[in-house]
Amino acid sequence: MACALMAVGCQTNRTMEAGILPVAIASAVTLNLPADPGSAPTMEAAQTLVARHDGRTQALSAILKSGPAGVHILLAVANGPRVMEIDWTDEGIRETRHAFTPDGLSGLNILSDIFITFWPLDDVNDALTGPARIIETPGGREVRLNGEVVISISAASATAHGRTRRTLHNHDRAYTLEIYSEPVRGDLDANAEAREE
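^ that's the sequence the OP posted. Answer follows.
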């Protein structure tokens, strides 16, 4: 997710049929995304996603809508055009890529980060394979493998602008993702306002 944006062509659609989808979230940790969103938390949020990796920083704006009917995510360049749309229902996952979608941007990786951040711990542990486990800590959540922290996610904290902030740190892959969220106002298909703190 932490990569530079570049134009890669016209809009394309990719549909993954319903079924468990394995996603490598670390070198030795696989998350089996469930066939459907299951107990997706009910939320509608405008978000700013700030990814940092290998000395680079990339900001995207997002609209996230989730609930019993499924999950819809719209990603856009900060204050710019659409990048990707993701729909996850019991019929599968549909990924729509636009002209400015980076080659390395993966809808499955985005869903995995959101899943381990917002879904109930029991659901996440059911989806993790092998000895990997996610636990709740005083500071948030941690994905651990044989006692080692592989991914840490801070608890939500309030910002000066009335938003909440969470930080996901993938220690194995050396990237961080800051997630700023606020309740959606207006059309869910409009670009989210992107404002870095």
